[in-house]
């Protein structure tokens, strides 16, 4: 049953990212090569599959997005995140941040996938807050929120325009870091 669960979650993560959360159960189970019955034995609803698929991709997404534990100054570590966005935003299969995309599509604040997405964004904001504090920001919490909003905006811009963010994500983050007093040292 674990193999079935893995196939279902892998297919769900791919389909929901590429096509949106309104992918039907039929398409989902077909892509995963599992029966609807098997899906409902593992999960109570498509909503639970969506939430579980986001939980499954979160560690890999974080590993891609965030720098290693000992890489650079706090400023460099924060800017790393924005450089990654700039790199991936030019890829033809870039559809933005999967957590933000899910939250935008799902209107109910109580949806289990929104909770997973919010948790991921809270973790990203906490990363920014820790780095901002280590870099000497006057108000690390405020800067962290601004950086998360900038990240989400850059991600959305990349999707909307389809040709990357043209260095603007890093520049915007640098302006915020400069204004907050987070230098490269």
CATH architecture level-2 label? Orthogonal Bundle
CA-atom Rg in angstroms: 18 Å
The share of residues in helices is over 70%
* Count of the separate structural domains: 1
Q: Helix- and strand-based class?
A: mainly alpha
User: What is the H level of CATH, i.e. the homologous superfamily?
Assistant: Tetracycline Repressor, domain 2
Integer average pLDDT = 94
Name of the level-1 CATH class? Mainly Alpha
Instruction: Flag low-confidence runs.
Output: none
Q: In total, how many beta strands?
A: 0
CA-based shape: elongated
CATH topology: Tetracycline Repressor, domain 2
What's the helix-strand series? HHHHHHHHH
Tell me the major beta sheet: none
Tally of separate helices: 9
Tell me what portion of residues adopts beta-strand conformation.
under 5%
Distance separating the two termini: 51 Å
A few lines on this structure:
The protein is an all-alpha fold.
Q: Can you put this structure into words, describing what you see?
A:
72% of the residues lie in helices and 0% in strands. The protein is mainly alpha-helical. The protein has one domain: Tetracycline Repressor, domain 2, CATH 1.10.357. The radius of gyration is 18 Å and the shape is elongated. The termini are far apart. Keywords: DNA-binding, Transcription, Transcription regulation. InterPro entries: Homeodomain-like_sf, HTH_TetR, Tet_transcr_reg_TetR-rel_C_sf. Residues 24-43 bind DNA.
Show the helix and strand layout.
Elements: H1 2-19, H2 25-32, H3 36-42, H4 46-65, H5 74-88, H6 98-105, H7 112-134, H8 140-161, H9 168-180
Helix pairs in contact: 1-2, 1-4, 4-7, 5-7, 5-8, 5-9, 6-7, 7-8, 8-9
């Amino acid at each position: 049953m674990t193999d079935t669960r893995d196939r279902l979650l892998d297919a769900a993560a791919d389909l929901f990212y590429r096509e949106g959360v309104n992918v039907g159960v039929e398409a989902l189970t077909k892509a995963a090569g599992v029966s609807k019955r098997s899906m409902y034995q593992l999960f109570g609803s498509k909503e639970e599959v969506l939430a579980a698929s986001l939980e499954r991709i979160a560690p890999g997404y974080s590993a891609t997005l965030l720098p290693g534990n000992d890489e650079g100054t706090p400023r460099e570590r924060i800017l790393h995140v924005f450089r990654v966005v700039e790199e991936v935003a030019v890829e033809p299969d870039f559809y933005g941040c999967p957590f933000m995309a899910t939250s935008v599509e799902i209107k109910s604040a109580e949806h289990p996938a929104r909770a997973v997405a919010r948790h991921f964004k809270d973790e990203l904001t906490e990363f920014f807050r820790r780095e901002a504090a280590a870099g000497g920001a006057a108000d690390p919490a405020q800067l962290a929120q601004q950086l998360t909003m900038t990240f989400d905006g850059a991600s959305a811009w990349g999707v909307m325009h389809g040709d990357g963010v043209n260095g603007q994500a890093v520049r915007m983050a640098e302006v915020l870091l400069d204004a907050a007093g987070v230098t490269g040292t």
